[in-house]
Design goal:
This protein is α/β, with parallel strands linked by helices and 260 residues long. The chain folds into two domains: 1-59, no CATH class; 62-141 and 172-258, Rossmann fold, CATH 3.40.50. Helices cover 35% and strands 27% of the residues. The strands form four sheets. It has a seven-stranded mixed sheet with strand order 5-4-3-9-10-14-13, sandwiched between helices. Helix 2 packs across helix 3 and helix 4 (63-72) runs parallel beside helix 5. The longest helix is centred in the first third of the chain and has 16 residues, at 2-17. It is globular.
Length: 260
Amino acid sequence: MAFFEKEILKQAARRVAYSPILMRSVIGMLQNQIKVGKYRFSVESPRITDKTRMEIFYRRYEMNEIQLLRKYFRTPMDTIELGGSLGVLSCFAIEQAQGRHFITAEADPELFQVMYKNIKNNFPEKGVVMLNVGITGKSISEITFAIPLIGTQGGSVEGSLVSSPSLKQIVVKARRLSDILEEYNIGEYRLSCDIEGSEVSILIDDPNSLRNCRQIIIELHDCQYGDRKWTIAEIADLICRQGFRQQDQAGAVHVFERQH
């Protein structure tokens, strides 16, 4: 009986700890600033849901990405981040770059402002390049991007190239990864990527952009690109065809390293 009582108490404590009302009160007392390690992040944007705030507060937000980044991005190297989102993972990636070039791109204009503020607050002296662009493999100037409506359920910090009733359509500037690398004179580099399926466009339409890439940490999901659906296994195979081998995986996050 004691075992079941302990389990009931644990579940009750968990419900209290993850209560949206409690979390809003705590975040309010913290003036909409959450500290993770040595970094402090602003979470006041209405685009950030209570769920995401709780994940950041309890160190669960992008946990797999942070752990794999610390494990594999261990040497100084130019780093490209595609899908900067709130700038949380960005700050850990900047640290791992160890003073080398760091370029991050985020398509969503609202999230870009959050990311910009968080990176600047934590790295005021660093010359980080932040681009408000959508990444595509095609030579086009704009793409249509879908972002969640305020107040809808689900991941409000994720955008998509696919339309749905809970998303609104916006047009954003588009850049190819290869053009970014050329503009900023990037040689060998490593890549952190979470762009909700747009990586397929890079792999199919701009594969030469990965020629000098040494490592990739990427979140993969089944996605729609062109006239077909791509599975995680198929996307991973596309990456391996570019000379990479999968080294590790944690949940949806995969690590690839170039074979010598």
